[in-house]
């Protein structure tokens, strides 16, 4: 596909004209308990909406004064309202396509996973790949990870690859090893590892860049229509949770086309700031495309790079070894010099840049990278991002603040992935997913699920951030707790800033996009241990209900 700057620029003018040309309300929501997140006007009872934006925000009486008999009105029945939630790191397009085409392995036993693989293999011609995703090695009742023999038994006549929900490691069967020409003598690639057991034999687990030999053998058969359908599916799923905007952190030009197709067909339920993976950046530069092009629905986002491994898969590059693995410090995928060469041209061309870095070693490398980029080509507000930015220390936080870097820590990991935290240790957890440290330093951290790795429900984020307690009641890193008020600001205001859209969204203010969520109970007065159960009743994007319970 040839990427065209005109495709994205053409979307801008129509929406801007629509918003500017309307002065009378088309819709009024009244009798609500509205938390605007606007410090100048924090509470309201009603809003008037026109042209997809908030025309006015105020008391019931104030909004009634600008109404007329022809205006549609909805009584909110004192329901609680917030600006639409913003997930600053959610793998949107790829997840939608995977839900359409791959085997969902978010199952609770190896036998159940085998059954799902066996069912798909029965519908797949022998010799063709069976692909699964969302497998989680700590969520099954077996107490162990998948093995080659498990997948061989499920699909002996098909190459099989099952990706961990964290996205950085995969498990394969014997047929897949044969197809990829990987065996016991195959060396580990730079930035990756073929896991071997005590006997030196391959276990079937491939980590980081070691998944490439298998991925290169899988033919991408997704059609343009399927990509659009995947976006339709996943954005509907997302809107049900109260999210109105996402940053898709690792996309392709084809993903941008899928978003545009879904937008034009009326099938896009949330707004998208779509990152472009570094491997595609030369195509985008050649086409004259750069960060920020688009409209308020589909906008070109940052260039994405990867420095180290995963938190949920326990291979992030850290300075202290993993608990129980004294010689294991994780995996560094790219060096600082490599990242510099990957990004200098894009930075000079005005691209926003976000780099995946989980461990403290990787975060240090990325901060040095950003310093180097700014020294070579200074920019007024590059607003660099560190995707995840998980394991921190005081010096890293100081440098993050000094450079104006935006961290996007995992929002649901403490609650959802608590059973994995023991491999990091209780002390290190006081320096992970470090919202308290970031906020105290004046750093605008965001809400970021990283779905599929973490669930994307904002109410789970609120509970995880406020209580730092997992599903079993274990507390991890209590010093990083934040207040519910702070968590709501992280999930709205900070999310808009992370994509240079703070003048368009994040608060309920006149002139901003009419994105909001109606919830069944007020999180500000609810028991923090019950936040995850607060129902989402309605989600509005651009003045239209995208979800109604």
Strand-helix topology:
Layout lengths: L4 H16 L6 E4 L2 E3 L7 E2 L1 E5 L2 E6 L1 H5 L7 E4 L4 E4 L1 E3 L4 H10 L1 E2 L5 H13 L7 E6 L12 H7 L5 E5 L4 E4 L1 H7 L11 E5 L5 E7 L3 H4 L8 H16 L3 E6 L4 H12 L6 E7 L3 H6 L11 E9 L29 H13 L4 E5 L2 H17 L8 E4 L5 H10 L2 E3 L4 H4 L9 H4 L5 H6 L17 H10 L16 H7 L2 H6 L17 E4 L16 E6 L2 E5 L1
Parallel strand pairs: 1-6, 2-7, 8-15, 9-10, 10-11, 15-16, 16-17, 17-18, 18-19, 19-20
Antiparallel strand pairs: 1-4, 2-3, 4-5, 7-21, 11-12, 12-14, 13-14, 21-22, 22-23
Written description of the protein model:
With 549 residues, the protein is an alpha/beta fold. It has a domain at 92-215: Roll (Diaminopimelate Epimerase, Chain A, domain 1), CATH 3.10.310.70. The strands form four sheets. A seven-stranded parallel β-sheet has the order 8-15-16-17-18-19-20. Strand 4 (46-50) and strand 5 form a beta hairpin. The longest helix is centred in the C-terminal third of the chain and has 17 residues, at 360-376. The radius of gyration is 23 Å and the shape is globular. The chain starts with a helix and ends with a strand. Residues 1-20 have low confidence and may be disordered.
Mean pLDDT: 95
Instruction: Kindly state the number of beta strands.
Output: 23
Give the strand order, joined by hyphens, for the main sheet: 8-15-16-17-18-19-20
For the termini, the CA-CA separation is 39 Å
Radius of gyration of CA atoms, rounded to a whole number: 23 Å
CATH topology of the domain at 92-215, which one? Diaminopimelate Epimerase, Chain A, domain 1
Unreliable spans are: 1-20
The CATH architecture of the domain at 92-215 is Roll
CATH C-level class of the domain at 92-215: Alpha Beta
Largest pleated sheet: 7 strands, parallel
Percent of residues in β-strands: 15-25%
Number of helices: 19
């Amino acid at each position: 596909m040839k990427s065209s700057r005109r495709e994205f620029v053409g979307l801008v003018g129509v929406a801007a004209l629509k918003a500017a040309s309307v002065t009378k309300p088309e819709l009024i929501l009244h009798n609500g308990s509205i938390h605007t997140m606007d410090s100048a006007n924090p509470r309201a009872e009603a809003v008037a909406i026109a042209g997809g934006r908030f025309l006015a925000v105020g008391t019931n009486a104030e909004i009634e004064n600008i109404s007329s008999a022809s205006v549609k009105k909805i009584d909110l029945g004192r329901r609680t309202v917030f600006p639409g939630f913003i997930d600053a790191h959610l793998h949107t397009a790829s997840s939608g396509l995977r839900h359409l085409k791959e085997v969902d392995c978010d199952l609770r036993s190896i036998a159940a996973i085998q059954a799902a693989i066996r069912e798909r293999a029965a519908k797949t011609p022998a010799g063709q790949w069976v692909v699964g995703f969302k497998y989680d090695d700590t969520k099954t009742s077996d107490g162990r990870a998948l093995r080659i023999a498990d997948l061989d038994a499920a699909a002996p006549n098909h190459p099989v690859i099952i990706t961990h929900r964290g996205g950085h490691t995969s498990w394969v069967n014997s047929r897949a090893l044969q197809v990829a020409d990987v065996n016991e003598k195959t060396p580990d690639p730079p930035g990756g590892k073929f896991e071997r057991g005590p006997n030196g034999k391959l276990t079937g687990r491939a980590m980081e860049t070691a998944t490439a030999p298998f991925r290169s053998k899988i033919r991408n058969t997704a059609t343009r229509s399927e990509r659009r359908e995947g976006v339709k599916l996943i954005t509907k799923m997302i809107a049900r949770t109260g999210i109105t905007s996402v940053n898709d952190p690792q996309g392709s030009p084809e993903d941008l086309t899928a978003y545009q197709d879904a937008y034009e067909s009326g099938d896009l339920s949330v707004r998208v700031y779509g990152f472009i993976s570094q491997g595609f950046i030369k195509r985008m530069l050649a086409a004259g495309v750069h960060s920020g092009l688009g409209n308020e629905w589909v906008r070109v986002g940052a260039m994405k790079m990867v420095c180290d491994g995963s938190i949920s898969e326990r291979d992030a590059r850290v300075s202290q070894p993993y608990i129980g693995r004294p010689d294991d410090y994780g995996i560094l995928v790219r060096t600082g010099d490599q990242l510099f060469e990957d990004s200098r041209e894009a930075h000079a061309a005005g691209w926003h840049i976000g780099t995946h870095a989980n461990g403290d070693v990787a975060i240090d490398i990325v901060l040095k990278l950003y310093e180097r980029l700014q020294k070579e080509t200074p920019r007024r507000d590059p607003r660099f991002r560190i995707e995840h930015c998980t394991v921190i220390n005081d010096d890293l936080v100081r440098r993050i603040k000094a450079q104006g870097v935006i961290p996007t820590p995992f929002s649901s990991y403490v609650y959802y992935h608590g059973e994995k935290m023991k491999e990091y240790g209780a002390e290190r957890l006081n320096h992970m997913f470090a919202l308290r440290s970031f906020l105290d330093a004046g750093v605008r951290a965001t809400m970021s699920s990283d779905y599929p790795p973490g669930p994307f429900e904002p109410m789970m984020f609120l509970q995880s951030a406020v209580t730092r307690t997992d599903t079993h009641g274990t507390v991890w890193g209590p010093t990083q707790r934040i207040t519910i008020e702070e968590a709501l600001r992280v999930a709205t205001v900070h999310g808009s800033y992370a994509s240079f859209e703070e003048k368009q969204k994040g608060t309920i203010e006149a002139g901003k996009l009419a994105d909001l969520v109606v919830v069944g109970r007020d999180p500000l007065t609810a028991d923090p241990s019950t936040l995850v159960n607060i129902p989402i009743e309605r989600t509005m994007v651009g003045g239209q209900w995208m979800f109604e319970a």
